[in-house]
């Protein structure tokens, strides 16, 4: 048995050589940081490093739970993620269905091309565009002034921060998310629609009976993934858009960890504990969502 | 005979079907109005940024630039391209894009080729190990400390190596390699080629459309680099373009006061907004140029098949 395994490995030696860069990457940059989660149970001393720093049990977690800023970030994260699932998730499906109703192929492609573009620019750039639009002397306020309305403060208003977050993410990502659904729709046999038309089915009936069932599976998988990242909340977007005035509604766990560690000097152990708590919760949510979607009769992730 | 019968039988039906398809009714009108409105919403912000970057202080303080171009002032651009701070940031980004994309392609394609093959010992373990990282990671602080221990603080490679493989793109490559006919490889192997030669001489040349797509996606990702710059670069000279743009957007005064030629800005009457918008345009432009080529591929669904892994 051992010799055959040895032979198998020898036979494939070039494959293993080709696999080296991949193994190197995942071990060094993905798994090595994972062992650092031990810090969640330690008191980090720079001189002693991660391994030799003394254990302190659950003290870091106790400290986290006692911070009101943590709980604010915790609930903000959940509210923002639920809002994203409720608003951004259906937006992509609706856009895909709208584009699909366009009869001319060229026009369809044109719409798709325009809507997808913002996906490829970073949140730094989008934030720049938004500051230009929403700042006190920004485009929107100029238009308001022109129409005789009062100027508004958009970016420092805690009540407006979440709507701005949802809308700007829809602006940036809805076209890209719609592509996945459009691809699923493109795979539908056109004869189904022909037959439905012959039977006198209305457009809406066709949508319900043919189009929707064919994208439901895709929607299910994307929903699982979205639920599995509930505790993320969209760091890159919020980090580039938020400011001290909107912490009350906009500070999420990731921005809180970054700020408390690098700006306010919170201990690495405590910040790692927050990160670990978040990662475990995400994993549990992913697992449950997968289970539920499968129970509902759709294909799950695994 | 049968086929003729069928077509003649179908004939009276098809014109009516086509007619129904072409009829442009109220529903179509509403759909198009919505889609045109969304198109304007997508394009207008970019258009406005472009106008702002070519405006001048007088126009901005009069607030007349938001709809129609009234000025064509390139002073913001000539300032950027003469200011060492921006040139350095541009070079850093160029390095990250060129070196980063090369490393991305090398690591992703070699690994994907190996993992597209069945039946060598260890494949399953490696594959599950890779998938697991998509759903779980150690979090920001352990990542930061690991990079610090590896000596990657203020090191340009921190913007390249930790993002050497995008797992999602790698899975796309794996599923693409799986669709290639196995016969090609077998004949090369009979001629005595090893796996490395097969990949280099047989597989890659016939995979060029996929390689081109992955190259474009990686190149745009690397060009957009800012986060590792913000996180790991304490030396402001090593910031990539978009990290500098971020500094400029959030911390304008401080950036300018650290630039020795600050006086020029005040003397030439360069409005801060113009400068910000010009840097923004320079950051978006390469993506605009690559976009038509990328669009060609993902519209065909090249990037889609892998969603289920």
UniProtKB/TrEMBL annotation, chain A:
Q: Which Pfam families match?
A: BPD_transp_1 (PF00528)
For this UniProt entry, what is the primary localization, expressed as one broad class?
membrane
All copies of the ABC transmembrane type-1 domain together span 74-289
What are the UniProt keywords, alphabetically? Answer: Cell membrane, Membrane, Transmembrane, Transmembrane helix, Transport
Keyword set includes Cell membrane: yes
State which residue ranges cross the membrane.
Answer: 14-32, 73-98, 110-134, 174-193, 214-235, 268-287
Q: How does it sit in the membrane?
A: Multi-pass membrane protein
**One cellular component GO annotation, for this chain's record?**
plasma membrane
GO biological process terms, alphabetically, are:
transmembrane transport
Location(s) in or outside the cell: Cell membrane
Q: Spell out the InterPro entries in the cross-references.
A: MetI-like (IPR000515), MetI-like_sf (IPR035906), UgpAE/MalFG_permease (IPR050809)
The entry's family comment says: Belongs to the binding-protein-dependent transport system permease family.
What protein does this entry describe? Answer: Sugar ABC transporter permease
TrEMBL record, chain B:
Keywords (alphabetical) are: Cell membrane, Membrane, Transmembrane, Transmembrane helix, Transport
> Which ranges does the record mark as transmembrane?
26-47, 89-113, 125-145, 157-177, 198-220, 274-294
CDD domains per record:
TM_PBP2
Which GO terms of type biological process are on file? transmembrane transport
Q: Where in the cell is it found?
A: Cell membrane
Q: Name one GO cellular component term.
A: plasma membrane
Q: How does it sit in the membrane?
A: Multi-pass membrane protein
Which residue numbers delimit the ABC transmembrane type-1 domain? 90-292
Q: Does the keyword Cell membrane apply?
A: yes
Homology family: Belongs to the binding-protein-dependent transport system permease family.
Protein name as annotated: Protein LplC
Record the organism: Paenibacillus radicis (ex Gao et al. 2016)
Which gene carries the instructions for this protein? lplC
């Amino acid at each position: 048995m051992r010799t055959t395994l040895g032979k198998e490995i020898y036979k494939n030696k070039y494959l293993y050589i080709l696999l080296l860069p991949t193994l190197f990457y995942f071990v060094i940059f993905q798994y090595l940081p994972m062992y650092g989660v031990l810090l969640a149970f330690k008191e980090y001393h720079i001189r002693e490093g991660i391994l030799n720093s003394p254990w302190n049990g659950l003290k870091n977690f106790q400290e986290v739970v006692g911070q009101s800023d943590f709980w604010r970030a915790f609930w903000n994260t959940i509210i923002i993620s639920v809002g994203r699932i409720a608003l951004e998730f259906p937006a992509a499906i609706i856009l895909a269905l709208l584009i699909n109703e366009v009869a001319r192929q060229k026009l369809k492609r044109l719409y798709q091309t325009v809507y997808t573009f913002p996906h490829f620019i970073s949140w730094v750039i989008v934030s720049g565009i938004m500051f230009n639009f929403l700042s006190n002397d920004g485009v929107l306020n100029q238009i308001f002034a022109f129409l005789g309305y009062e100027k508004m403060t958009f970016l420092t208003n805690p009540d407006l921060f979440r709507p701005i977050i949802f809308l700007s993410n829809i602006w940036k990502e809805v076209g890209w998310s719609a592509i996945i659904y459009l691809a699923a729709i493109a795979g539908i046999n056109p004869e189904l629609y022909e037959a439905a038309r012959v039977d006198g089915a209305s457009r809406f009936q066709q949508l319900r009976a043919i189009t929707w069932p064919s994208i439901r599976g895709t929607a299910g998988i994307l929903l699982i993934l979205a639920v599995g990242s509930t505790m993320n909340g969209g760091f890159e977007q919020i980090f580039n858009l938020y400011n001290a005035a909107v912490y009350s509604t906009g500070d999420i766990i990731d921005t809180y960890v970054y700020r408390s560690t690098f700006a306010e000097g919170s201990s690495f152990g405590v910040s790692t504990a927050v990160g670990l708590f978040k990662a475990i919760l995400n994993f549990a949510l992913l697992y449950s969502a997968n289970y539920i979607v499968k129970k509902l009769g759709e294909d799950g992730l695994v | 005979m049968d086929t003729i019968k069928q077509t003649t039988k179908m004939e009276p039906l098809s014109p009516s079907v086509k007619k129904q398809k072409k009829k442009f009714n109220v529903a179509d009108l509403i759909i198009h109005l919505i889609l045109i409105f969304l198109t304007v919403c997508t394009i207008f912000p970019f258009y406005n940024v472009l106008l702002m970057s070519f405006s001048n202080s007088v126009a901005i303080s009069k607030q007349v630039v938001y709809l129609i171009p009234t000025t064509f002032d390139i002073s913001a651009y000539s300032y950027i391209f003469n200011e060492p701070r921006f040139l350095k940031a541009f070079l850093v980004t160029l390095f990250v894009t060129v070196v980063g994309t090369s490393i991305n392609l090398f690591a992703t394609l070699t690994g994907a080729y190996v993992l597209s093959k069945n039946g060598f010992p260890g494949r399953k373990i490696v594959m599950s190990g890779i998938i697991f990282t998509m759903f779980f990671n150690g979090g920001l602080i352990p990542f930061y400390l690991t990079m610090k221990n590896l000596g990657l603080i203020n090191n340009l490679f921190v913007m390249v190596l930790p993002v050497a493989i995008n797992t999602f793109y790698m899975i796309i490559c794996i599923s693409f390699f799986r669709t290639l006919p196995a016969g090609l490889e077998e004949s090369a192997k009979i001629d005595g080629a090893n796996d490395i030669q097969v990949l280099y001489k047989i597989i890659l040349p016939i995979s060029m459309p996929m390689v081109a797509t992955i190259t474009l996606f990686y190149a745009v990702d690397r060009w957009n680099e800012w986060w590792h710059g913000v996180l790991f670069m304490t030396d402001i000279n090593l910031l990539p373009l978009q990290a500098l743009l971020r500094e400029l957007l959030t911390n304008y005064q401080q950036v300018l006061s650290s630039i020795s030629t600050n006086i020029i800005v005040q003397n030439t009457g360069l409005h801060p907004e113009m400068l910000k918008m010009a840097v923004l345009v320079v950051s978006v432009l390469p993506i605009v140029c690559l976009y038509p080529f990328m669009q060609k591929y993902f519209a065909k669904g090249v990037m889609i098949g892998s969603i289920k892994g």
